[in-house]
Amino acid sequence: MALYRTEAIVLGYRNLGEADKILTLFSPDKGKIHAVARGVRRPRNPLLGGSQLFSYSNFLIMEGRNLDNISQCEIKESFYKIRQKLEPMSYGLYFAELLRASTPMEDKNRELFRFFLKTMYVLQDWQNLEILSRIYEIKLMAIQGFKPEIQNCVECGERVQNKVFFSASMGGVLCSSCFQRDKHSVTIAPETLIVLKNMLIGTYEELMGIQVKDHVLKELENISKHFISYHIDRKLKTTEFIKDVNRLKINRGL
Ligand SMILES: [Zn+2]
User: Which of 163, 159, 217, 201 is nearest to 185 (CA)?
Assistant: First the structure.
């Protein structure tokens, strides 16, 4: 059976048998794959470090009839700072879940890999993780081929101004004459549209530290939620977890 080398990030795992784990890996060469880490739930196993959530490693993998097996791994970046605290950890889980849900198996996409890796780096130190989530969501959807049209009305093609609506199913903004084409369209304020545009075109470096007003952030969350649930046909488990973590933060006065 063939051996192959690839770098990959651990997106998730589930336990298998007494001591093994099936890892969901995301690789630039292979896309999303499953591979077994044998004995990894025992202490001092050589695959232990590389099997941690979000770990980024070089893997040597043996192709199997049903499941591939990891024979070696060498950590490039452990991203322990994400796992250390509840808040970045919960967002990391959400980002990984959104990636898993929007990516078919073994669909190679180097741009998507670079983007996700970059997101893991910035997640370690980003201050406002709600804002980072909105940036991540819109950029992820754009890379996955669902970039929303935010300049011209998706129905008549006119440049939108003043009263603007957003339609998840039509993939972008609608003008005030056309908004009834989608009865689920929601209003979007001009200032929210500007922030959304900046989020789409700006790099993480350019966007790090941006200030977003609360009502704009709320509106973005609403639009994003509609847009994601239209394109991803499953309920995401981690969104509730993030809500719980944020409630905990408020209760503790953090
Ligand atoms: Zn129109």
Answer: 163
